[in-house]
Amino acid sequence: MQAAKYNWGVPTVVTLPKPSLVPGSVLVKVVCAGVNPVDAKNVIGDKLPAWEPCKRLTEWFVRDCTPGFDFAGTVVQAGDSQCNAGDHVFGTVPPFKGSFAEYVVAPVSQIALKPKALTFTEAAVLPLSGLTSIQSLSGRVKPGSNVLIIGASGGTGHVAVQVAAALGGRVTAVCSARNAGFVHALGAADAVAYHNDLIGAVYHPRSAQHGAFDVALDCVSSGDARDAAFGYEARIRGEPELLRGDFLRLGGGVVDWATAGCKRALGVNLFREGRELFWVRFPDSAQELRQLAEWADAGRLKPAVASVHPLSADGVAQAFADLRGRRVRGKVAIAVAPED
């Protein structure tokens, strides 16, 4: 089969044996794979210090690993699972196993039946962004909650807007001015240009009726200086404070990732109250994927696909370049096989 590989920071496509089924998994013929920033960063590159030796260490560590987590395709072998050969499914593969390939072996706890309302391409780009959104917002967003989504037109942000709305939240979306209409169509009640004064643009027009936000999900900030320069948390926690609940980030520096890892591995929460770097969980996510599929089939959730590239060295490189450009509206995908 054809599969992409990391090769010292440069993607390549090689011929590999078809993977073998293992207990508790299914063999899937991939139709499309979703591309996420974590793939373009070589999986672990944003979790290490930004200096050249760490960059080379990252490239060495992931060398010969296949990129990708998200996929949609058709079950070829169901093994001992409750799936059937021929089922159309979507979901994720474990880290370093990679979905940029013609076939993947996926744990049954990480897949669900593909939403009938979505194409394979749309379903393929949903899992990581959808799971991030539902895991971070469920329990924090209730009917009537005020929700702030930063980076609301991007890959995770535009899905988070729809998930927050499906949970009953009233969403304010921070994005570029050109994407205001896009996020309104997704279900955002308000749209604020990211370069504006958030206090003047958000707080005063809304304070009398809606009050401060119950939760903020920051899909932009990271350890990268270009992202950190926006200083969203400091602006939101200024005077007057716009947030009365948690501020959740999807990216951060080395200390943030180490703290998140401590919470995940040891169950010890060292984040200060009201602030957390959220780290998505793939194991046992089938029920959450089914919830995403239910919303999709009900017309409440539809990922936007910004670009689709072929499974080739140039195609994968262009997909990564799209993401690094930070101007993608929606998601990027890798076409592996023709849609049915």
Automatic annotation (TrEMBL):
For molecular function, the Gene Ontology terms on record are:
oxidoreductase activity
Q: Name one Pfam family in it.
A: ADH_N
Instruction: State the InterPro entries in the record.
Output: ADH-like_N, ER, GroES-like_sf, NAD(P)-bd_dom_sf, YIM1/Zinc_Alcohol_DH_Fams
Ranges where the Enoyl reductase (ER) domain occurs: 9-334
Signal sequence span per UniProt?
none
* PANTHER family associated with the record: ALCOHOL DEHYDROGENASE RELATED, RETICULON-4-INTERACTING PROTEIN 1, MITOCHONDRIAL
Q: What is this protein called?
A: Chaperonin 10-like protein
Q: Which organism is it from?
A: Tribonema minus
For this protein's source organism, the top of the classification is:
Eukaryota, Sar, Stramenopiles, Ochrophyta, PX clade
